[in-house]
């Protein structure tokens, strides 16, 4: 009889299918962040993406019997799903909600570039033939796609909110990859990553607040060069 939590060769279709579906949802939400025209929508999409990654941690914890992942999921829920979005929305209170038109390219072109890079990342990782005892290589390829699309969000959007959310969602892609290749990573290291995220939230939060107070806009077009 095949064990319900067997290795890659005997992994049950249900568990692997659920994990891959969750990974696909993380990528779809990333594309939603790329297209969002309101900063509130972008922050909420980040919260939804973080919740999806948290759900995957629970799925892996149950399917692979790794109790540490329950603690990680609880911390991730508190920090990335609740604290980070609430802090960002409070800091942006009073700012213009629209960030539409802040892209360096048209929305269709941005999505096309992101799709190209996402496909490249997915198939490049597949070509490396990396295997994991926890999840399939497809989930690892999807995590690379999330990271690359997050980079696109940070680069092509010229507003401080998109750049911050791109950086935060990049961390979600890294978290997804860590669940694939190193789900049994010591809990202290996972917690350290979350505290690094909190530091980044403070830095980006101050940047958003100060920038908006000075130029009364979320656009970064006015700080694209050094000023004496």
Automatic annotation (TrEMBL):
Keywords: Cell membrane, Membrane, Transmembrane, Transmembrane helix. The chain crosses the membrane at residues 14-33, 45-63, 69-92, 104-128, 134-155, 191-210. It is a multi-pass membrane protein. The keyword Zinc does not apply. Coiled coil: none annotated. It is found in: Cell membrane. This is Hydrogenase. The lineage of its organism: Bacteria, Bacillati, Actinomycetota, Actinomycetes, Mycobacteriales.
């Amino acid at each position: 009889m095949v064990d319900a939590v067997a290795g890659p060769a005997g992994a049950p279709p249900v568990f692997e299918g659920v994990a891959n579906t969750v990974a696909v949802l993380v990528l779809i939400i990333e594309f939603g962040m790329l297209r969002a025209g309101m900063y509130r929508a972008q922050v909420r999409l980040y919260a939804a993406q973080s919740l999806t990654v948290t759900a995957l941690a629970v799925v892996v914890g149950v399917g692979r019997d790794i109790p540490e992942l329950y603690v990680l999921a609880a911390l991730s829920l508190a920090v990335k799903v609740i604290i980070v979005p609430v802090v960002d929305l409070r800091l942006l209170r009073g700012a213009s909600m629209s960030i539409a038109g802040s892209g360096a390219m048209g929305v269709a072109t941005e999505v096309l570039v992101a799709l190209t890079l996402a496909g490249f990342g997915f198939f490049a990782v597949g070509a490396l033939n990396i295997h994991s005892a926890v999840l399939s290589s497809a989930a690892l390829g999807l995590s690379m796609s999330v990271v690359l699309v997050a980079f696109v969000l940070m680069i092509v959007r010229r507003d401080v909110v998109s750049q911050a959310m791109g950086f935060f969602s990049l961390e979600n892609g890294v978290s997804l990859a860590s669940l694939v290749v190193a789900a049994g990573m010591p809990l202290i290291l996972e917690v350290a990553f979350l505290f690094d995220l909190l530091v980044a939230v403070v830095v980006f939060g101050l940047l958003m607040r100060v920038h908006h107070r000075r130029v009364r806009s979320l656009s970064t077009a006015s700080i694209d060069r050094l000023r004496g």
